[in-house]
Write a structure and sequence with these properties.
Number of domains: 2
Oligomer: single chain
Strand content: 15-25%
Helix content: 25-40%
Structural class: alpha+beta
Distance between the termini: 28 Å
Number of strands: 19
Length: about 450
């Protein structure tokens, strides 16, 4: 058993800093690189790509990235774990193997985790008794299921553990929990038992700290953010994990950013519900038990994490088509910028009403005045505002209404208030609205499958 392992976060979402994974494997010592690419809406985007091309459906950044980091990872024996396989882990793995062949890298094992995609099995599962009703509203799935674009089960850490036990150098999964990416190497390296829920929770907490990339090393920091050094070269977090469940959060010394109790604490409270019950497929972690100790030099010790047994359910993330939307914007300048923007909004709404268009919602924002805080925005003297961007958005199940809305923005330039600019990119076009459907499924209805592809 190793005395400790170093697990580096390389991506917090699809679209994060492209250079971060390369810096993590080249700027210091790490044993694992974990990369989280998936969000709920990402799965529907990937499913659409796969529907158009069966060789797509994964984070396309991965093969390009692997061309940069694979030689380094192979030389330094760094294992890579990512959920960037999306809805097509096999195609992603094949693309990585093609990169390895191009680089003449031998003896490479790439594991894929399958079984999370249940989109084509919904009817079968419902017949077997899996209700899949909306876990937030209680609505039945039946009126919606034929509109579903994607349906994926959140697997936990143990399929990844199985892949590592089979000798995988790279593990590519579909919809795996963000925390499971980090927990898995701890289970594998330290031999943690699945029913040791304090250890499962300790690894889960570490995974939660790493899952959003630099958000725990000073990025998006609400505290003394101006004290965060060299954000242009911000270092992503690294978890130094120990067999007893203690974890030290740090970063590479030669990169920017900051790791202290405040930056780690902000990430800990990000996207959690009941802090006493942070539910994953592997355990239920009690975030109120967590203790933090600032060790100085960008090191924070995380310890004393307590946990409880996992539930009998997996969470299922589904998406479905729910109409269309469009947005358009114009910018009005001083003097009377806000007054002009409000007048333009009234004119636009009157014209839409006169056309008898059908909208589920019309939303207006005055960017520079209330777009962020809405009715809570501080009221400013209108004469003091240099410019205001009027942004109007509509949503409807009627495509033609949304399309016609897009034709009513540009006319405001010459038929509305003066001092207007900012119209670019042509008429706003209708976009499909993708709605989220969260559900639960008993674990015995689905089974993860691990396959090894190798050169």
């Amino acid at each position: 058993m190793k005395e400790k392992i170093r697990i580096a976060s390389g991506q917090g979402f699809w679209g994060d800093l492209i250079d971060a994974p390369y810096q993590q494997v080249t700027k210091g010592e790490v044993d694992y690189l974990v990369m989280d690419y998936l969000a709920e809406v990402t799965m529907s985007i990937l499913q659409k790509q796969k529907n158009k091309n069966p060789h797509l459906g994964y984070a396309k950044d991965i093969p390009v990235l692997m061309e940069r980091i694979l030689p380094v990872c192979k030389e330094r024996n760094i294992k890579v774990i990512t959920n960037g396989g999306g809805v097509n882990p096999k195609a992603c793995a094949n693309a990585v193997l093609d990169v390895a062949k191009k680089l003449n890298i031998k003896n490479l094992k790439v594991a894929i985790v399958l079984g999370d995609d249940i989109h084509n099995k919904l009817d079968e599962l419902l017949e077997k008794g899996a209700k899949l009703d909306n876990m937030e509203t209680g609505e039945s799935i039946l009126p919606y299921k034929d509109k579903f674009l994607s349906a994926n089960v959140y697997f936990g850490a143990f399929p990844i553990v199985e892949a590592l036990q089979k000798g995988a150098d790279i593990v590519i999964t579909g919809r795996t929990t963000d925390t499971g990416l980090t927990l898995a190497p701890m289970i594998y390296e330290f031999g943690w038992a699945a029913d040791n829920y304090d250890l499962m929770s300790a690894g889960t907490v570490a995974g939660h700290i790493l899952e959003c990339g630099a958000q725990s090393t000073g990025g998006n920091f609400l505290g003394d953010w101006q004290s965060v050094e060299d954000m242009a070269n911000i270092g992503f977090p690294i978890a130094e994990a120990f067999p007893n469940g203690d974890v030290i959060i740090t970063k590479h010394e030669n990169l920017g950013g900051k790791v202290n109790v405040a930056t780690v604490s902000e990430q800990l409270v990000y996207e959690i519900g009941d802090p006493t019950q942070y539910i994953t497929p592997d355990c239920v972690a009690d975030f109120t038990s967590i203790k933090l100790e600032d060790l100085g030099n960008n090191k924070v010790k995380v310890f004393n994490v307590k946990g409880k047994p996992e539930t009998e359910f997996y969470k299922v993330s589904c998406s479905y088509s729910d109409g269309y939307s469009a947005s358009g914007s114009l910018t009005y300048s001083w003097p009377d910028a806000l007054t002009k923007a409000k007048a333009a909004d009234k004119i636009l709404r009157t014209r839409l009403e006169n056309l008898n268009l059908n909208f589920d919602e019309i939303n207006t924002e005055f960017v520079g005045y209330n777009a962020c805080h809405g009715p809570l925005a501080k009221k400013l003297p209108e004469d003091d505002i240099n410019e205001i961007t009027l942004r109007v958005s509509v949503r409807s199940h009627d495509y033609n209404s949304v399309e016609r809305f897009g034709k009513e923005i540009a006319p405001l330039i010459l038929t509305g208030p003066p001092s207007v600019t900012g119209f670019a990119g042509g008429r706003p076009k209708p976009r499909e609205v993708v709605a989220y459907w969260p559900a639960l499924i008993k674990k015995d209805f689905v089974q993860p499958e691990v396959k090894i592809l190798e050169l």
